[in-house]
Amino acid sequence: MNSTLARLVVKRLGSGALTLLIVSLVVFTITALLPGDAAQALLGQEATPETVAALRAQFGLDQPAYFRYFQWLGGLLIGDPGTSLANGMAVADLIGGRLPNTLKLAAIAALVAVPLALTIGILSAMFRGSLFDRTMNTAAVAAVSVPEFLIASLAVLLFAVHLQWLPALSHVSEINSFSDFLRAYTMPVLTLCCGLVAQMARMTRAAVIDQLSSPYVEMAMLKGARPIRVVLTHALPNAVGPIANAVALSLSYLLGGVIIVESIFHYPGIATLMLDAVATRDMPLVQACAMLFCLGYMMLVLVADVSAIVSNPRLRK
Amino acid sequence: MNQIVKVSGLRVAARNAQGDDVTIVHGADFALEKGEVLALIGESGSGKTTIALSLLGYARKGCHIVGGSVQIGDVDVLKLSPEALARLRGRTVSYIAQSAAAAFNPSKTIMDQVIESALIHKTMSRREAEAKAVGLFRELALPDPEGIGSRYPHQVSGGQLQRLMAAMALITDPALVVLDEPTTALDVTTQIEVLLAFKKVVRERGTTAVYVSHDLAVVAQMADRIVVLQNGQIQEVGRTEQILSAPTHPYTRSLLAAMDPAARTASAGRTAQERDDVILSVRDLEVRFGNGKAGGGKVVLQDINLDIRRGATVGVIGESGSGKTTLARAIAGMVAPSAGQVLLDGKALSPTLEGRTRDEFRRVQYVFQNADTALNPQHTIEAILSRPLKFYHGMSGERRKKRVAELLELVRLPTSIAKRRPGELSGGQKQRINLARALAAEPELLLCDEVTSALDTVVGAAILELMAELRRELNVSYMFISHDLGTVRSICDEIVVLYAGRKVEVRQREAQNAPPFHPYSHLLGTSIPLLRPGWLEEVTGHTAVALPSLAAGLGSQPGLCPFIDRCPQRVDGLCNTTPPPLRQLDGGGSILCHRSEEELVRAQGALKLVTGEAA
């Protein structure tokens, strides 16, 4: 739509590609440092060294590391992340089967968390120092401080064990009605949202308060504008930049949270896939998943920067 | 009697750091008749803005109105509910803020903001409001009245924004308009345009207004009556002519005295032999910002040549963006020039800080504009002054302590101040410490960047006094940067006028008030308001004069006169085709202009110039 934005996007995509390259190297190195390999994991402890060596040769694990790295990288560039060592399936197919589930979980969490967080943040900013503001502040600090696995465990304890309202595991394959949907998603989404909402609400509050102390907000009040109008039409448009960044940062945190939540609730997403892959030393799969998380993070940050520019007429022109 | 505003016994309190209420406005009483303009004048902390805001039933964060009444028409503003107050603000009483640049929302179009109060109060439809706004833009002499509303605030100039804010305040035809220092942030040549526009709409519409300002000369042009405030108390109320010509209160008299630049001129004077003893020279200096040295980037300074003699004061004057601070920073080594050099005692200085010796640093010291940000708030005054003593002179222990006391004495501060921190000092005291810190190095040249701009008139006048005395005692040279011609005239031996990064004029002190002037210096000189009602009307003729037309399409080749777009004496076919020559004047000094000395004198002779004879 204009040169500033186009230049930024191109620059970002360029530096993003470079970042991905560095990340690929780091991911590869770290996975190579893990003790044991797929051949050992597959054959178990009883296997003779000869059979392990034979399987290694079959997987190509006897090749030098730099050779395997470039082979893998070359595959990535043409869109082929290789084959799983654990079951011989194409990594792309494995991920393709799980990715929609994870995206669905993340999307539902974001859909619940973002509006909730913005509302709480804006209201706390408007009524700064009120009982509502103080309560929300305390709750936010508490929610951020408690780790997800604890929230998840407590939720299971309360809703599944004690009240017996919800199943302890998330059965997404058997969703036939809205109530099934609620039963499958309530606890994972609730767990993810706790920290997410708290973080975003706090950053939204700070961004809006920053704008509320500006001279043009005072001017708007002296024009007779009511508080709600002042916040919605004057303060908020200028807070979009910082809020978008806060949302992007928080949502990227969602990517980490999803790993814990999926494994606790046995949700068939990409994170459980990755965890299983680590257990079986299925490196192609682990690496592909790691790259995917990194890509998702960078896209979020890019979207945040673009929306900050679009919301600011000074940067737009 | 047609009183529409009556303020009585107004008291406002502020909560201090300890949580106690401190009264900052002590029982203000005044009244306005319909169509009258009343000025609230005073220095910072006098409570003038606080009083003005209470006319809208508003108190800034940390302040609250504790007593009295503000009667507008037949309602007491202070007794209104929040809803009723919202109905009053922007409808019955409207506000014009000091900095339009900050008071306009950067992410909304100008039109949306100008007509917002009309839409909030539903006085007219959007279409009617927009039509009315365009009419107001025209009345306020804004360029492109039809189209300017669709722009964003950053796309118009500061002077235009300030006038747009006037349109915003007048859109609902309020009974009272409060103007809070509306021209303080503007350059003088812009200020005059804004004042003319304000005066015209106020007169034509019969607007009742409260005009808040610290500048008596501006108030003299705008107000019918003046209220003089000090420390939240009304000292004197009277008609404008009476306050200016026969002030009764001593405080009013001291304000008037501080306005008179003639008072300090006696401190200048140096012997003939010092004339040729040049301490610092700038040769063909050019500074570019942005894209490297090789011809790219934006030219900020160009072809700058100047000499500063030992013990002399050179004033550098120009409006914001003229490059005056950049010149000082280039001399100090904080900005590397793209061409030219700076010579200290004939020896070329390194363009950057890295290449300079400690002794070169010592000899050229910089005094920053804002002592609040230049002094570390965590350090005591003693620590602040001790650092340069240790760094440049290796002093320590008792000797250093003694020298700190001497320095404080030098800037006329009690030695007991050494144990305090900057936050516990007044603005004037902080600026003295700022000066003492530079003097601690025992410099030969002080680069003073707008050192009195942030201070009140009376306090600033005292600092100038001190600087003149120090120059005599210590024989230091000053390069004195300011946007205020009056200040520069009162203490400088030589004045350098910068416009858009070019040196357009150098003027000796002896010749400072007589033509010929460079057309820009002339505009600058005649734009400073005089302490005389009616001055604004007299200058109207000269600022509104139609510029001689120029053949279009000649393009802008480098080196052409930078002032060509605003110059009333430009010559088509000459100024737009040929770079102007640097004319040496008979009486010393030089002017960058095509016009001959005689032509300039003839054009400028008729105009009465601003000099010390003001009040």
How would you portray this structure in words?
The complex is a heterodimer of chains A (317) and B (615). By secondary structure, chain A is mainly α. Chain A has a domain of 220 residues: Orthogonal Bundle (MetI-like fold), CATH 1.10.3720.10. The longest helix of chain A is centred in the C-terminal third of the chain and has 39 residues. Chain A is globular. Chain B has 615 residues and is of the alpha/beta class. Chain B folds into three domains: 191 residues, P-loop containing nucleotide triphosphate hydrolases (Rossmann fold, 3-Layer(aba) Sandwich); 238 residues, P-loop containing nucleotide triphosphate hydrolases (Rossmann fold), CATH 3.40.50; 87 residues, no CATH class. Chain B contains 22 helices and 22 strands. In chain B, the strands form four sheets. Chain B has an eight-stranded mixed β-sheet with strand order 16-17-18-13-19-20-22-21, sandwiched between helices. A six-stranded mixed β-sheet of chain B has the order 6-7-8-3-9-10, with helices on both faces. In chain B, a hairpin with a 5-residue loop joins strand 1 and strand 2. The relative contact order of chain B is 0.09. Chains A and B meet through helix 9 and helix 10 of A and helix 2 and helix 5 of B.
